[in-house]
Amino acid sequence: MKMQRGLILLFIGILAVSGIQPVPAQAADTYEWESGTIYDAGTEKTETVLLKGASCGKAVRLLDAGDSVTLKVNVGSAGAYTLSLRYSQPYDENGKIQNILVNGKRTGTVSFGYTDSGKFDTAAVIANLTAGENSVTVESSWGWTYLDTLTITPWKGGTVSPDAKLSNPNATQKTQSLYAFLCDTYGKNALAGQQESTWKGSENYEFNIIQKASGRLPVIRGLDYMGEDFSGCNRRAKAWAAKGGVVTICWHCGDDFKGSHRESLAAEPNWSKLLTPGTSEYNALIAGMDKGAAALKELQEADVPVVWRPFHEFDGAWFWWGKGGAENFKKLWRLMYDRYTNEWGLNNLIWTLGYSGDVKAGWYPGDEYVDVIGADTYVNHTDSLVSMYQHAASVSNKPVCLHENGPIPDPEKMKADGAKWLWFMTWHTSFIDGNAINTANYLKQVYNSDYILTLDEIPDVYSYGVAAPDPRQSEEETDDSPVLIGDVNADGEIDAADVRLLQ
User: Fold this and answer.
1) Residue 66 CB burial class (10 angstroms; 0-12, 13-18, ≥19)
2) Which of 26, 285, 307, 352 has the largest count of CB atoms under 10 Å?
């Protein structure tokens, strides 16, 4: 069975099959919102108005919650498209959020940032359109926005440069190797991941459930420094890396980096003091942050790379690190990155930016501070979450992961929809031990899917592509141990990783 799956993976690597069909190149199509159909149900009338600076001198003034305007649009081929909305929003400096529906189904939300009166900006959403006619609706959530035009172009997101480099040029060899493996895997397969718990009688509670159901183990183990469990997390991280697995760490804590989940929700920092050097709040922030740095330094000394996932779900603003808004969050992220990288010399981190399900605009710290982009949501189905994937993939040309999930997306749906999640990370306990969707049969199906890579199927990710033997050299020509012809990365197997290196 293992050889059969390896051959299948080899063919997948050769064919480089992608789920969603590419949309043929075409000119952008632009529509005027005033030509659409308006639905008005509120006390403030949503209507077409004259507006200086609008493309045809007119715009739809969308006001009350529940009001909407719908356009009929046509595309030649089914696939993913960028819907760009030109607008003016001179009402609220905090922005206005509206719902976007495609063919009657909500596909996401769009945040319309503030513009001065008579000024315009563009907001965008990614959506799947069918060939022929489609309806696109903007439904007021917060309202009070002028809608000018809708421009539709084929979506070009979801790609990563073949020579992608880590944000930290001084990353350790093993960390660089792991990132190369992740980038090479992205778009071809998804890695199985599982968050651990430590209070159910066994540190491998979730992993034992998965192995019993499927006969396999995930590639990625999720840990949490909450409660300052540095020594315990590090011990388990070292053991998992020794198995050949990948370690990812998050941190639920208060704004002094003490406590756990409750404190991460309850803290209400004074941001002007928290981010001002010399204040007691700043000093406590740095002292707590440095405890995590010391723990990660221990892992670096053990040569263990870490997929580092701090401040997750930041744009949801339920945790303290998102409560100060986008600008303060970006300052916080850059502060940690700079301190950990340049002062502590942490070169074993792959920095993973984990959005919430909305993937709100304006929160991105910059390519020089990020290596992997993620999004998460907890749903009651096994759909591919393709819309959320597309939003995350549009942030930047970085690999995109489902950094947390409840039910695992169906691998066949991921392939069919082009939801190219690099990995999924199922949450612990009730999401795996008695979940109505993540049953033993479903775990067996997912973990034995040809699209999902498990611990037994990956190469040595910490020496990925390093000192590979010349594939043209025969066994008789080598002075070392016999080489399996075609085993380019010398991990003892012929699989998709070898195909990538050959390419």
Assistant:
1) middle
2) 307
DSSP letter, residue 21: P
Model pLDDT, residue 135: 97
Q: Which residues are catalytic?
A: 313, 404
58 CB-contact burial (10 Å; exposed 0-12 / middle 13-18 / buried 19+): middle
CB atoms within 10 A of CB 272: 11
Q: What integer pLDDT is reported at residue 47 of this predicted model?
A: 95
Q: What is the pLDDT of residue 482?
A: 44
pLDDT tens digits for 203-234?
Answer: 999 999 999 999 999 999 999 999 999 999 99
Q: Are strands 246-250 and 306-308 parallel, antiparallel or unpaired?
A: parallel
- State both tokens at 42: 């509120």
What pLDDT sits at residue 503? 46
- pLDDT < 70 positions in the chain: 1-27, 466-503
**Sign of the torsion angle spanned by Cα atoms 472, 476, 478, 481:** positive
Q: What is the 3-state secondary structure (H, E, C) of 345-402?
A: CCCCEEEEEECCCCCCCCCCCCHHHCCEEEEEECCCCCCCCHHHHHHHHCCCCCCEEE
Q: Which two tokens stand for residue 212?
A: 């019993």
Side-chain-side CA neighbours of residue 410 (13 Å): 10
Partners of 353 in the β-ladder: 373
Contact 457, 495 (CB under 8 A): yes
Residues 123/111, Cβ–Cβ less than 8 Å: yes
Structural domains present in the chain: 29-154 (2.60.120.260), 173-463 (3.20.20.80)
pLDDT score, position 173:
97
pLDDT digits (tens, 9 = 90+) for 164-187: 899 999 999 999 999 999 999 999
**Is this structure's pTM higher than 0.85?**
no
Report the b/e string of 124-133 with b at 16+ CB within 10 A.
bbbbbbeeee
